[in-house]
Design brief:
The protein contains 10 helices and 10 strands. It has about 260 residues and is α/β, with parallel strands linked by helices. Helix 5 crosses helix 6.
Length: about 260
């Protein structure tokens, strides 16, 4: 009789500092396969630092990271990506002078095994890889409704569509874990609604686990299974959206501040 699979991601007593500034302190986090976790908190709470740590950009001062049940010691971003983690960033990181199709195809780079020599000479393995890559990319373009823009230069597209292209590029890697750093920043209400649907459908269609940083509580309540709340680099709450929304510590640290700003 086999036991249940290990969590997809486990952070234990993670701390991170820059010089004398403590960015994260003793963070514990468990994420299961297929779960959607939202991270909220005031500016400077350590949200992006946490994603940078998970994706290998930063390395913890102390604590441990387990991915798929295995302890990962000082992994590089490439190693993390090879383990099935993809991400987007707060600011667009697209190749503006490349087409939509070319940008999304860059997300398939880690899936290539044939050498440049094999591709240049059209070896069978290279041709098979190219066919598989194109099939996956076309599937994603259709899924996100951007197939009609495949030949457009990304820099000529409206901002909302560029954000969708970046999401498509991350999906092209076929991640088990997708990290989204404020994916809806700068979007209007309709664009947010559409991207929310795509995130949920991605999770349902491919069982992709998602961690997203988001300030819009309407979005958080709509898409997340759990919510993690950070304040000054410390975890102050971790639970269902309803329980977190009604947590007085969260109201005092973050939700009350949001309401005051809206008023």
């Amino acid at each position: 009789m086999t036991g249940s699979p290990p969590p997809l991601l486990e952070l234990s007593q993670i701390s991170l500092a820059f010089g004398g500034v403590q960015a994260l302190s003793d963070i514990d986090l468990t994420l299961n396969n297929g779960e959607i976790l939202a991270i909220i908190g005031p500016n400077g709470a350590g949200k992006s630092s946490l994603l940078n740590l998970i994706s290998g950009i930063y390395r913890p001062l102390s604590g441990s990271i387990r991915l798929k049940g295995e302890l990962r010691v000082r992994p590089s971003p490439r190693q993390i990506a090879n383990l099935g983690v993809a991400r987007t960033f707060q600011s667009l990181a697209l190749f503006r002078h490349m087409t939509v199709l070319e940008n999304v195809c860059t997300g398939r780079s880690l899936k290539q095994h044939a050498s440049i020599f094999e591709h240049a000479l059209g070896f069978p393995r290279a041709r098979r890889e190219e066919a598989q890559e194109r099939s996956r990319v076309e599937e994603i373009l259709r899924f996100l409704g951007i197939q009609h823009y495949r030949s457009r230069m990304v820099g000529t597209l409206p901002y909302g569509l560029q954000k969708r292209v970046e999401f498509a590029r991350a999906l092209a890697a076929q991640p088990d874990l997708l990290l989204l750093d404020e994916p809806m920043a700068g979007m209007h209400a309709d664009e947010k609604r559409e991207l929310c649907q795509f995130i949920v459908q991605t999770n349902r269609n491919w069982s992709t686990a998602v961690i997203l940083i988001e300030h819009d509580m309407g979005v958080v309540m709509r898409v997340s299974d759990r919510v993690l709340v950070l304040e000054y680099g410390r975890k102050i709450a971790d639970g269902s959206p309803d329980s977190v929304r009604n947590d007085q510590r969260v109201i005092d640290a973050y939700l009350g501040l949001q309401e005051a700003q809206v008023a």
